[in-house]
UniProtKB/TrEMBL annotation:
<protein>
    <submittedName>
        <fullName>F-type H+-transporting ATPase subunit delta</fullName>
    </submittedName>
</protein>
<keyword id="KW-0406">Ion transport</keyword>
<dbReference type="GO" id="GO:0016020">
    <property type="term" value="C:membrane"/>
</dbReference>
<keyword id="KW-0375">Hydrogen ion transport</keyword>
<keyword id="KW-0066">ATP synthesis</keyword>
<dbReference type="Pfam" id="PF00213">
    <property type="entry name" value="OSCP"/>
</dbReference>
<dbReference type="GO" id="GO:0046933">
    <property type="term" value="F:proton-transporting ATP synthase activity, rotational mechanism"/>
</dbReference>
<keyword id="KW-0813">Transport</keyword>
<dbReference type="InterPro" id="IPR000711">
    <property type="entry name" value="ATPase_OSCP/dsu"/>
</dbReference>
<keyword id="KW-0472">Membrane</keyword>
Length: 130
């Protein structure tokens, strides 16, 4: 979807105002969204969609999805979460999923970043090289 430059700029400014100490503030997001819907400035739907996209991306960057072939022991899961928190900050949350299709290893997704250390990924890479 193509949006106007003005709408994109307005959405970015609203997003910047939603941050407190570099983190998204839920109260500010709600307040800004409510004011935007109430005032309905020109191109407000474009602004709202872009603002929603920016907020969604920021929320995704604060949540990790950890997939493994088998259930991780609690000790290993807590150590992995501590490593993620040291890298991305203490407010990151983690969701652990069992994905037997990985065969072995783990795959971690934080926002748009994916670290794939699974056997399935290595086999796929190997088959592409042959």
């Amino acid at each position: 979807m193509k949006i106007s430059r003005e709408a994109r700029r307005a959405a970015r400014e609203m997003f910047r105002l939603s941050l407190v100490d570099g983190r998204l503030d839920n109260a500010r997001v709600k307040d800004i969204s409510d004011r935007l819907v109430a005032e309905k400035p020109r191109s407000f739907l474009e602004i709202l969609k872009e603002y929603t996209r920016l907020v969604r991306l920021e929320l995704a960057s604060r949540h990790a999805v950890v997939e493994s072939a088998v259930t991780l022991p609690d000790e290993q899961a807590s150590r992995l979460l501590a490593d993620l928190q040291s890298r991305f900050g203490n407010d990151i949350t983690a969701e652990f999923r069992v994905q037997p299709g990985l065969l072995a290893g783990i795959r971690i997704k934080v926002g748009s970043d994916v670290w794939d250390g699974s056997v399935r990924n290595r086999l796929n890479t190997l088959s592409q090289q042959l």
